Amino acid sequence: MLFPTFAFGVFFLVLFAFAWLARGHNEWRKIIILVFSWVFYGAWDWRFVALLIVSALINWGAARTIAALPPGGRRRAVLVAGVCANLGILIFFKYWDFFLEQVGATLTMLGWERDMPLMTIILPVGISFFTFQGMSYLIDVSRGKLKPARLLDVTLLMSFFAHLVAGPIVRGSDLLPQFQRPARLNRTLAATGLLLIVWGLFKKAVIASELATGLVDPVFSDPTMHGRWDLIAAAYGYAVQIYCDFSAYSDMAIGLAALLGYRFPQNFNQPYRASSLQDFWRRWHISLSSWLRDYLYIPLGGNRGGLFGICRNLMITMVLGGLWHGANVTFLIWGLLHGGVLAIERIWREIKPKLWPSLPKLIGVVITFHIVCLGWIFFRSQTFDAAIAFLAGLGQAGPAALTVTPLAVALIVGGLAIQGSPERTIETLGATLGRLPALAMGGVLATMMVVVEALRPEGIAPFIYYQF
Amino acid sequence: MPAEVLFDHSAASQAVATPAQSERSLAWTTAVIFVITALLALFSAASMKSWAETLPPTPVNAVIRQSAEDWFATTERLGLAAPRAKLHALWQSARAAKFAGAPSADAPPDQR
Q: How far apart are CA A17 and CA A14, in angstroms?
């Protein structure tokens, strides 16, 4: 069930009605949201719901055990076992076949060919998100930052439909305290939530879908058939598409949760206006970058251990961040590129003579954006060879025929212009529109939705991050 | 209330809405959603029709599909579908526009 569909609209209206009718009974309200979340997730495959329940049970039990044990070896052992259980689920579903393929290739190379027992496992939607959420919950409990929650709350934390399949990675510390008190609504929250839903709908259904079908997919499917201008446009187009696609999901998730009275953390903050890669990672997929910082980079040593240690930790974090997206050499290269540039930025900050002026911000933005675009070429390409063919094509004249259209160029420019809008525009607008009478507010939003409906293509592709 | 409150998870921000304020906000939000739903049903019935067409063929879905088609026909007759249709046509012409040197739509796929 995809957010920007009629079926989901009906689903949410029914949930909204039931959830608020039960507002006097917080426990029943949470049960209603939980059951609806399972229906939402089960629309892909009912077996995935069982996996979600098992995962929640493991994390609930492990957290309670951790909290009951005194600090020491046994407590640490339970934490490690819990984290390994989450990682085990992730590795089994996401990386097992890739691992066996690599073992098979290595054995073949050594002249010891074997048929590997590949399982062609179906990847449960959103598995990378809920396993990371489970791990952060356990670690927070073991660090004493969070008290172990009740089974219902942990299960709802991991199953909540709004963030389940493509984030944000909402941590227990964000959501569990909200589950423990009756949900409240205020007009600013509701108005901003509604605006975020419509804005997300526009970004996904109009900008991302049009760029995907009209430019990015045809060019990336066979870059050798396209000329330099198509390749340049597709590289920029994908940068805009993935931003509009992924941030749209986050916006809608935040908006839907807000309408139910819950607040999710911000996941995007105009990432292409970043003037360094470090700045980019403070603005892009914030819930993942902060997760990697808190649960991987800092435990690895963080900024301690001298320049070499910092660069090593950055590389490890970004490579694992790349592989989090999937078992593919293209994600590995993407992680290496980001880790490498972050390390170079760090080294430059350390060795730059103090009297040298800093780079003008605009130049920093342009350079950062192009490094990010280079990374996206590897991220989007199916294989390493396809990415190299794409990059090689940028330097050649190639076929003259153009796939890029004036509309695609306009959407790319528009998508980039969003990055230049004042920060917190939607929230400010929400606070303003929240003062309107319901009829006027409904009229404004309905007009915007009719425009989106008129511009969107027939059908809708799944969100890019569903595959992760 | 400050706009930043959407991304603030603190207990203080949650406590801003009293039960009475929350009730009033819920009534306002419900009314907004009702207005949106009603206006979309009037001015964007084509979306409902498109969705109904994707439903698997069952006796119940056949009724839903027929109802959606009848409702769309009604909104068309009343001229309510015209704004969306005009905008859609404008968008399609924008989609069809090409740069000089681009292959025409009837060219073979590998030359488009």
A: 5
